[in-house]
Amino acid sequence: MKKKLKVLMLFYSPYQKPRGYDYREEFADPDNMYTEKDVKEALLALGHEVSLLGVYNDITPLFEEVQVNKPDIIFNMMEMFNDQTQLEKNMAALLEIMGVPYTGSSAGNIFVCNNKALSKKIFNFHHIKVSKFHTYYRGKRKRVLVKLRFPMVIKPLCEEASRGISQASIVDNPQAFMDRIKFIHESMQMDAIAEEYIEGRELYVSVLGDKQMTVLPFREMLFGKMPEGEPRIATYKAKWDEAYRRKWGIKSVEAANLTDDLMVNINDVCQRAYQALDLESYVRFDIRLTPEGEVYIIEANANPCIAKMDEVALSALKAGISYEELIQKILDSGLSRQ
Ligand SMILES: Nc1ncnc2c1ncn2[C@@H]1O[C@H](COP(=O)(O)OP(=O)(O)O)[C@@H](O)[C@H]1O
Ligand SMILES: [Mg+2]
Question: Is residue 65 within 6 Å of ligand 1 at its C-beta?
Answer without folding.
Answer: no
